[in-house]
Amino acid sequence: MDRRDFIKNSSLGTGALLFTGAALSGFAHTVNDKVYRVGVIGFGDRGSGLYSLLSREFKDKFEVVAVCDPLDMRIDRARKMTDTHKVKIYRDHRELLDNKKIDVVIIATPLNTHYEIARHALEAGKHVMLEKAMAFTPDQALSLAGIAANHPRQTLQIGHQYRYSPLYYKVKNMIQQGYLGKVTQIDARWDRNSNWRRPVPDPKLERKINWRMYREYSGGLPAELLSHQIDFVNWAFGSLPSTIYGTGGIDRFKDGRETFDNVQVNFRYDDPGMIGNFGATCSNQHDGYSFRIKGSKGMVSLLVHDGIFFPEPETRKELEEVDGVSGATKLTWNHDKKGIKLVDSKLKDGSFYAFQDFYKAISENVLPDSNAFTGGTTAICVALANDSLYNGGIKPWKPEYNLIPGDHVGKTAGHHQGKTSKEG
């Protein structure tokens, strides 16, 4: 497509990079009146939050009928939040999975348990929404992707919910259509100024509640935070890293934790020729969540729910010329007169859009966009990053890690006829 035609067709000529109907078509309502019965495994902050979202926004699509958690404090939370006449409470996930009335399970448990519980769920015939990261080790990721491929009638969605925002689909399209030019650098951060700890009512529960602090259970900052941005880069560019190198340490909080509170990881992508820099610290919140994708024609700066396109000087000149030629409304620049806003209205949380895609994938038997193949790839990236962080050295990407054959996820895996939900 000619660049001038692309600018006009992308709605820049109307004054801003706003979402068109086509851009949002992937989130169209699925014609299906079935209500799927859900069991939530893990009722901490994330599991209970997803329960609340389902109860508030998706009553016509999902009904939570069971909750499972081994901790008394979370069982008490479940009893307070749910109608115990309608929601059965379990302490063992295997007992929940034996309940034949349950169609779907949400797994929001510590990372080291993801593989075992997801495997049991798929083998029990359930559809699965599994929190990120998909698995703890490369071997687990490869195995779970194979299990998912062997259960083609079941859906396995991975909880990289931030990239489900329509904003991130828009940016993915901009990248794939060459709108940013040749991208060579990506700078991604997710910073905070806190110890990342949660209160513990009993010292005996320290490792079970603050599992993110301990390497036996957790992938630390790369898994819990940076995996979202890593996942988007792999997906949007259809690429895999060639090498991964990380450095970090426990630089502030000398409190017995084992996972690093300060990390920087470098990904080299030989194809397409690009460097991804992913960092997080627990000692400064100024940048917070930041995500900058830098190309020869412009840069996109992303937040979770907002984004700005900063064209390079020549690109900016072309945009203004096209706008003048078309006679359309003046471009909507950001307050500093240098950037163009990518959205002009408030978006919902990414989990909302993820549940829309999950329902569509189950109903139409297609791959969700965040699936065992994309999620498995990200899990392997995180595992290699942590291997480098803790053991040193540059970690190469091995051919046996390739879960995404060619340029389309899962097309040779035999899963859901090789289609994603956006293909139809």
From TrEMBL:
User: Pfam families under this entry?
Assistant: GFO_IDH_MocA, GFO_IDH_MocA_C3
- InterPro entries associated with the record: Gfo/Idh/MocA-like_OxRdtase_N, Gfo/Idh/MocA_oxidrdct_glycsds, GFO_IDH_MocA-like_dom, NAD(P)-bd_dom_sf, TAT_signal_bac_arc
Q: Where is the GFO/IDH/MocA-like oxidoreductase domain?
A: 169-300
Q: Where is the Gfo/Idh/MocA-like oxidoreductase N-terminal domain?
A: 37-159
Q: Where is the signal peptide?
A: none
SUPFAM superfamilies from the UniProt entry: Glyceraldehyde-3-phosphate dehydrogenase-like, C-terminal domain, NAD(P)-binding Rossmann-fold domains
Instruction: Tell me the GO molecular function terms.
Output: nucleotide binding
State the superkingdom: Bacteria
Q: NCBIfam families this protein is in?
A: TAT_signal_seq (TIGR01409)
- Protein name (database record): Tat (Twin-arginine translocation) pathway signal sequence
Species, as recorded: Sinomicrobium oceani
